[in-house]
What we know:
The protein is built from 20 helices and 23 strands.
Amino acid sequence: xxxxxxxxxxxxxxxxxxxxxxxxxxxxxxxxxxxxxxxxxxxxxxxxxxxxxxxxxxxxxxxxxxxxxxxxxxxxxxxxxxxxxxxxxxxxxxxxxxxxxxxxxxxxxxxxxxxxxxxxxxxxxxxxxxxxxxxxxxxxxxxxxxxxxxxxxxxxxxxxxxxxxxxxxxxxxxxxxxxxxxxxxxxxxxxxxxxxxxxxxxxxxxxxxxxxxxxxxxxxxxxxxxxxxxxxxxxxxxxxxxxxxxxxxxxxxxxxxxxxxxxxxxxxxxxxxxxxxxxxxxxxxxxxxxxxxxxxxxxxxxxxxxxxxxxxxxxxxxxxxxxxxxxxxxxxxxxxxxxxxxxxxxxxxxxxxxxxxxxxxxxxxxxxxxxxxxxxxxxxxxxxxxxxxxxxxxxxxxxxxxxxxxxxxxxxxxxxxxxxxxxxxxxxxxxxxxxxxxxxxxxxxxxxxxxxxxxxxxxxxxxxxxxxxxxxxxxxxxxxxxxxxxxxxxxxxxxxxxxxxxxxxxxxxxxxxxxxxxxxxxxxxxxxxxxxxxxxxxxxxxxxxxxxxxxxxxxxxxxxxxxxxxxxxxxxxxxxxxxxxxxxxxxxxxxxxxxxxxxxxxxxxxxxxxxxxxxxxxxxxxxxxxxxxxxxxxxxxxxxxxxxxxxx
Length: 648
């Protein structure tokens, strides 16, 4: 069909793309480490943090004779490479030329709309493998294998699985004579029933965003090429209808490009008219086909190539990481043993230190890492310490936060939990870990808690003892913690979220006091503007903030406020910190100088506001009155000339 040199060239391009897939998968872990979710699943599988449910895939990584991070990295990279290789080899066998599979695989793996190149977890790599398997079995016409891929995708990628199920139903209709009525009906009905169970809670959101030039290629090809109308019309239209669910018609377009390349290479022998063509004309058409295919391939892989450069190759040069290291799967153990030598401070987990690892190796029980100056401890960093030391990490109450101790004690550095846990302190912005003070052997020897000094202060920092060395119990609906402060008066910071807190004595369980904090209720009062404000400007305005709730509120609970204008604003609303510290009692009002970002267009806009707490919770703030802001155009409308004043 094509010459040996041309075949070798296209195979070489396929090998280069396969290496790019491997380097991207291994390199991103080597340069950036695993995400917090992957680290959490690895720790859950190793029983280092409490968990009820987690992907059972991670249990496999813990039983292999290597550290679990290396097993996960190797698994992720091997599956990504296998997905590319299996798809290319299958398409090579079906189309019987190296041009079509190289072109199709390049468009699928490196295209801008597919996202197949972004492999950031073992689950994503597994999903990628079955996506590639679904495309391969669809082109090869294997109904039973496609049914298996559809069921797996229904669990991991529901939208893609539903789209491929439509293709399965049409393929079963086409291959009815080959497989028989029983197999065809079973594949459609059985797979459909199981898929409905898997995606029962999935909400379909049909989208036509991706139906652009990608979708035009199969439709235009059907209009112009008779062979495609006869053989591929149903497949293309079914895939395009399924792409309305996924929002991306890349599968239909990629297969169509492969079919077009095949037709262009099969000039001779396809018809009587082709046999009568001169030999040089036949060769020129084949060369033209390869040239056009190469041009399309280059355009198709540009987004993936740019992402590879931006996230892998350029950062590796800045960190002076040899290219050969990017091919090696990431090992957390090797990483921890060479923090000061190989990594030279440019580690994927910047907070890890040799001193911290040595400190962990000396311990033999559960531990916690607290950064007193931060609301939340770095989850990924704490999990990395747990995996490296193989010591349980305590203090978790949910999948996305540590327990209240990191909030409870974030203003003090000498607090200790009266449990079996070892407390490790890290000063904010540093890598050094310090071991906390030792808790008393007999908590009953602690001074009694003076509950008569516990009263509702206007801020949430509640003094619960006047003496250092006092132990107390802090209990909420989610957790119960026993704490003491060896050399400072006990102070507890209550969160801004609605909660019931109980502070009680360790010595006498009958001594306790409950505190209930309701939701924050604030109202924003905009200034009365007699004149419009300029457009496309940063406008300083004097707003008022009123506490409409039942509890005092302090600025230490609130992180930022966001002011924005409603529909029609072309600038994102920026978050701005509060310009001054304040305490608001119920019913009180405070004046705040804030900055409003106005859009380019002139008109009347409605003011919108929201506040973010120190715990990362964002809630809207109602605006008093009509909340309307009028702007006047500072710049002339587009298309109008502005006469400059004459220069002297």
